[in-house]
Amino acid sequence: MLVLEDVHKVYGKGKDKKVEALKGINLKVEKGEIFGVVGFSGAGKSTLIRCVNLLERPTSGKVLINDVNLLELSPKELRKERRKIGMIFQQYNLLHSKTIFKNVAMPLILEGRPKAEIRKKVTELLTFVGLEDRMDHYPEQLSGGQKQRVGIARALATDPDILLCDEATSALDPNTTEAVLDLLRKVRDELGITILMITHEMNVIRDVCDKVAVIEHGKIVEQGPVIDVFTEPKTKIARSFIRTVLNDKIPASVRKLIDESSKENPHGIYRILFKGASTSTPLISNTAKKFDVDLNVLHGMVTELQGIPFGNLIVEFKGPKEEMDKAIQYINDHNALIKEVDQDGI
Ligand SMILES: Nc1ncnc2c1ncn2[C@@H]1O[C@H](COP(=O)(O)OP(=O)(O)OP(=O)(O)O)[C@@H](O)[C@H]1O
């Protein structure tokens, strides 16, 4: 388990030069979980991930790996603990003059392991990432996705407990990204490795993470299971990231319809969110049958998050207030979340 407790990082000195990149980060990543940190450029993502393996030393706070605070270790103890943390990078950081075999073998060569052991381990790792036939090739002979696979194999060479991914798919096209994300899932599922990734791409969070934290100006402003944060974001910034992938923004033509309807029917437009089993129950038609209300679906979509269906509908309710209140309560009682649509369409 990886825990960050009240981690601060200040770069530079003096009033004008000081940059407070992290302002009290608290995170808990459970064993075997993929945890994503998302944020805009300059939010502090790189600093955060570099503070985990002490590539940057936090100014204060604790970095605990299986209850051991890395900040309290001697250099020798730290070297040992660092073997438990692998890292992959956006630009792969491969040695161009060395073969794929040598690149993956490098952490083991540096540790002075016997040659036969290195050959066995590297062969296993390259088979795991699907590149066993490329051992003798050089990085420049590989595609971006293949280079990242080599990066993953190299990061796994020391049998780490934790894998840190620094914008690991940001340089890749969508298909290649998907293949690398599949491989990260395999790393979690087959090797039980805990993964902490930073990204500015919300599709990566949606597709592979179990939990997500949103970072803004050096602070975590929201965190939780991906399904919860995606379906009920609490902050504006989380909502804006989610919009980039869920496409739940109300189209302008529908917005116009809503504006017109709300003139005659104030407090009549609602957003209904369904998740899991409630997506397959005929809640809208049941509500219309049970209560004296007319329901008009203005906009809707159903998507999948972590294998769980998630529906998002904009519905106009018309009818006597008492019946509308009952209908809304009924929907609420049936595992759907219902909220009046406000000026921003939220
Ligand atoms: N070595 C450094 N010296 C001084 N300031 C730094 C240093 N590294 C980062 N910063 C500052 O710390 C803040 C956070 O930067 P960081 O690189 O962690 O953000 P980020 O979210 O990873 O951004 P990006 O996605 O653009 O890489 C920024 O204001 C940045 O300018």
Q: What does this entry look like structurally?
A:
The structure is a single chain. By secondary structure, the chain is of the alpha/beta class. It has two domains: 2-245, P-loop containing nucleotide triphosphate hydrolases (Rossmann fold, 3-Layer(aba) Sandwich); 252-340, Alpha-Beta Plaits (2-Layer Sandwich). Helices cover 37% and strands 28% of the residues. The chain has twelve helices and 14 strands. Strands 6-7-8-3-9-10 form a six-stranded mixed β-sheet, sandwiched between helices. A four-stranded antiparallel β-sheet has the order 2-1-4-5, covered by helices on one side. Helix 3 (100-110) runs parallel beside helix 5 and helix 5 packs parallel to helix 6. The model has no long low-confidence stretch (mean pLDDT 91). The structure holds adenosine-5'-triphosphate. Residues 11-12, 19, 21, 39, 41-47, 200 line the site of adenosine-5'-triphosphate.
